Amino acid sequence: xxxxxxxxxxxxxxxxxxxxxxxxxxxxxxxxxxxxxxxxxxxxxxxxxxxxxxxxxxxxxxxxxxxxxxxxxxxxxxxxxxxxxxxxxxxxxxxxxxxxxxxxxxxxxxxxxxxxxxxxxxxxxxxxxxxxxxxxxxxxxxxxxxxxxxxxxxxxxxxxxxxxxxxxxxxxxxxxxxxxxxxxxxxxxxxxxxxxxxxxxxxxxxxxxxxxxxxxxxxxxxxxxxxxxxxxxxxxxxxxxxxxxxxxxxxxxxxxxxxxxxxxxxxxxxxxxxxxxxxxxxxxxxxxxxxxxxxxxxxxxxxxxxxxxxxxxxxxxxxxxxxxxxxxxxxxxxxxxxxxxxxxxxxxxxxxxxxxxxxxxxxxxx
Length: 366
What we know:
It is built from 4 helices and 18 strands. The protein is an alpha+beta fold.
């Protein structure tokens, strides 16, 4: 339907082919341009979850109060004793008040004698869950293939470029990544990480009898030490009919490597449908769409809270985030061209939590 509209209605039959390919080339250039513009800024995108903490102040008069990290400043006293300056706004005058807390090993936290208050650092569990959910959406496997299988003798090798745009909560990512500071630039570091995250993947698929496929892939996150390895299996339970679309179900497992702060496993089940449209005798255009459900197990390691790595290492006991099991829902829409044995795919993914994904694949079928 989309192909017919572009070819016959949107641009007219005579100019449809030329305008159609110009449109496709424009989409590809726009996608690559956004990703490369962010890559040129040379960020370090490794995780630093040891910065993701909050201050909890216990007082005999006001009880327990929690403050986010942007209200805290770390410093040393004249005797080199760690101290934390707490800033908090006055809602009536819109001015910031401050209060100084000094490390007290006997009390296991930072003590303010004048107000008889104890400040301790605790993990920002809600912030970690939000970050891990967006991170899981970004790393979840992409489809970039129609529902139909390769056939029992088919084999596919592909190179995939994908970028993800983080639409919101970017300030939270400043606490989760190296090289950023989410405290409004108080340290001279940028407080927002890049909006676009890029990955490149190498994908292998092998067709089997009975409409089955097995595959493996490796994915590298640009400008980081992190990468994923995965396995997948697909079954096209309905395919091979000339006037009906194919339907398939796929299971994928991926594991995150290269992070000292986080272990993540992704279990994905997706359902897809596609319908091939041959033309010109040697070209096949196949639009596809589907739904994907992933379970992401995010398991952070024991962390020592600090404002910067190597600074404030004596800030108190280590913090341990609770493991999070996250449920991710995505819808994907794309198309594939095959010219002889060379295939090109484009895909966009609609997901939750303000994460938008777009992917390109260049492959060979034989």
